[in-house]
Structures are given as C-alpha cells and as structure tokens.
Design goal:
Largest sheet: none
Helix content: over 70%
Strand content: under 5%
Family: Belongs to the UPF0332 family.
Oligomer: single chain
Distance between the termini: 9 Å
Pfam families: HEPN
Structural class: mainly alpha
Protein name: HEPN domain-containing protein
Radius of gyration: 14 Å
Number of helices: 5
Organism: Hominibacterium faecale
Amino acid sequence: MHDDLAVTLAKYRLDRSKELIMDARRLYEAASYKSGNNRAYYAIFYAMRAIIALDGVDFKKHSGVIQYFQREYVKTGKFKREYSQIIMEANEIRNASDYDDFYIASREETKKQIDGAEKFYTAVKVYLEEIF
C-alpha cells in the first residue's frame, strides 16, 4: 500500500501530464512545432514521475528518471517495450527542438510526438488506476 502523500503526488503529476498534452495540442495548432515537441516530451516525463512517486524516489536529472523507469517498469514487463521507444524518441526530439540551432520541426513529427505522449499518458493512467 502506498502512503497518502505519494498517491497525492502521483495524481498531481499525472494531472500535470494531461495539462502538458493539452498545451502541446494548442502549440501544434498554432504551428509552433518545436514548442509542441517540448510539451509532448514533458507530458511523458511527468507521467513517468507520477509512477515513480509511488516508489518513493525522484531524480535531479531527466536521465535518472528515464533509466529508473526503463529498469523498474519496462525491463520487468510492467510496460511494453514500445513505451521505452516512445520515451527515447520524445527525449531525442525534445533535445533537438530545444538545443539544435538549425533544427526544423515538422507538423507530422510533432503530431507523432503528441500521439506518443497521449498513448504513454493513457497507459500510465490505466496502470495507476489499478493501484488506487
């Protein structure tokens, strides 16, 4: 059983993930594709952090969150390998969108990132609903 604080934090982070997906959609519709990619990645990131809140852990770096999720949830079979691919691609696209000077984000790519974030969010939501 998880303590109340961990459950509250997990729910907050999941709500934040949903909010970021809505932000990503608005940015996509406004043709702000780089920013849409950023919000889609952060939706995934907050969904991962929602789950790990229940384990009582957190990390200062994104890489720590990703590695922990991969090790504890993908490699153990709690989440399918396809979710690992969604995470890794979103992280790569977000880094390019945020830091590569000459990176051009496309409408199609951003749509794919948002779809991936929605799929990831839904899987995490279902997983968490089974727990609480």
